[in-house]
Amino acid sequence: MSTPRDGAGDDEAALLAARSVSAQCQCTEALEKLETFLDSEMGELDADRLRTHLEACEPCLEAADLEQRLRNLVRRACHEQAPDGLRARVRTQLTVMSTRVVISRPD
Ligand SMILES: [Zn+2]
């Protein structure tokens, strides 16, 4: 009796692992580039890659959406470009919020 080759399962697991690692890398990269993207200072090629990632990745899309909304809010409040101090404060707040989401656990 011949048995089917048994390597396929392992290959699949390795592929899945590699895929999830690269997905994480893409998220890190996407979030790092978010500001450049929203500032419209990004090259078309990078912008396209980021857009593609945002379409496929809900957490990053939400982060982008939140950042965009904060920017609109700041812009509307100031009627012009936000002062550096305010921008820094908003950015810190954003970082604190996302850090809390990652590390928060019930006591
Ligand atoms: Zn992502």
From TrEMBL:
Superkingdom of this entry's organism? Bacteria
Putative zinc-finger domain: which residues?
A: 27-60
Checking Pfam families in the record gives:
zf-HC2
Indicate what this protein is called per its UniProt record: Anti-sigma factor
**Organism from which the protein derives:** Beutenbergia cavernae (strain ATCC BAA-8 / DSM 12333 / CCUG 43141 / JCM 11478 / NBRC 16432 / NCIMB 13614 / HKI 0122)
